[in-house]
Sequence to fold (531 residues):
Amino acid sequence: MSEPQGFLALVLHTHLPFVRHPEHADFLEERWLFEAITETYLPLVERFERLANDGVPFRITMSFTPTLLAMLADPVLQARYIRHLDKLIELSAKEIDRTRWLPPFHRLALFYHHRFTAARQRYVDTYRQDLIRPFRQLAERGCLEPIASCATHGFLPLMDVVPSAARAQIRIGVEAFEHAFGRRPIGFWLPECGYHPGHDRYLKEMGVRYFLTDAHGVLFGSPRPKYGVYAPAICPSGVAAFGRDLESSKSVWSAEEGYPGDSEYREFYRDIGFDLEYDYVRPYLNGDGTRLNTGIKYYRITGKTNDKQPYDPDRALEKASEHAGNFMFNRQRQIEFLRAAMNRAPIIISPYDSELFGHWWFEGPEWLELLIRKVHFDQQQFSLITPSEYFQRYPTNQVLEPSMSSWGNGGYNDVWLNGANDWIYRHLHHMAEQMTQAAKAHAQPDPLTRRALNQMGRELCLAQSSDWAFILKTQTHTGYAYRRLHDHMARFTRLDDSLRQRRIDEGWLSELESKDNLFPFLDYRVYAEGS
Fold:
């Protein structure tokens, strides 16, 4: 094969907030993880493994947040996920019987029953409940480049008031990645692509070679970039910044203009959890009986009205193939244009949330597999690549300082700092200052004090999760977000008070360590270093 004219870097950002409630038999928000495993993570792994086994060369970059890694490795959540699957298998079996005289729906009931049964078999028998392992194996086979992210997906630009807090989020994130993948990360996903000038230095300290920003983070950099977002920019620290390509992002992200809104694709918002009789679905709802999405959906998007037609997986697959071909064609034309204007092969950075593929866009994993196959077999203009590989090919790049930016609505801080959530930051900044002071004040603590300090670090990190501010802005699950913020702030404050009074309640501390049990490696002294 001749040298490609350009390169495409597909980047999947894989994140969920830490939700674990062993004190409850059922907890609604734990379903976020269960749905993502069934609809996104297992389908992606299956398709990546099939591509590798078929000898189709491909390179995908995936970020994994420490909160998600902690949940995937947690025995309590692993057992609850199996129980969740068992209930779906039971419900889909009942649906096979209920729809036996309704041919379009009967076929779909069989489809879902097979899908849930296969998911259980793969999760339990193939992966032994360890879903990190297949991703690690794909990395070892050279197909996947895993990269790290911040400890709890904290939005770094709003942490710069207390620099030690931003630095700790990055350092803990890198350490969590090392524990999961057995090596230091080459790249780093800044949560929400949120960059603040100078934060690249913290990445440099941890051996990170590149990170990703939104387009305007590079385009509005100083000086302006010669090649726009189609070549990396080198920060003053020497770390590379890769900017997002808006054209390729829009075709997948946009519900209005993008592929996921096609009429043949499965309708996300029609689910038997809402459509069928309450008494029939009640055994499969959460403990409080609130109606919810079960994952069994019988309709396609059809149009903008409520009049929906039955979903046809075969027709949807044909449409996914058509859209994969269209995406490839558009990248060919884009690269042809860019190559004529550049003295090197351009790189197109296309980042997406992993959960878009399968959860929100049910056919997304099929689209991705079809795209990878088409890129390999049907054209020679461009190849798939990872940012680190492109950096190796073209190590000499323009030096500039990217501008403050994010990929949130408006491009800056608006989503995470507004009238719905601005109240949280005075507390988070105060907690970060207290954490830094406590870390400096206890250079050689006794074992119990060390445990309390480490738990303070966990509670601070959990309160800093950008998910809570996002939920308050979007007005979804707001009660849960308020509760989580209140709980972590209260626990942190009580721990800090107990240190000052030298009266640590070991029983209560043990309870906290069991409940908020992520980051067992966390060392509170990270807040004292470099502050």
Q: What stands out?
A: The CA atoms of residues 320 and 366 lie 7 Å apart. Strands lie at 6-14, 60-64, 144-149, 187-189, 210-213, 233-234, 240-243, 347-353, 382-384. The mean pLDDT is 97.
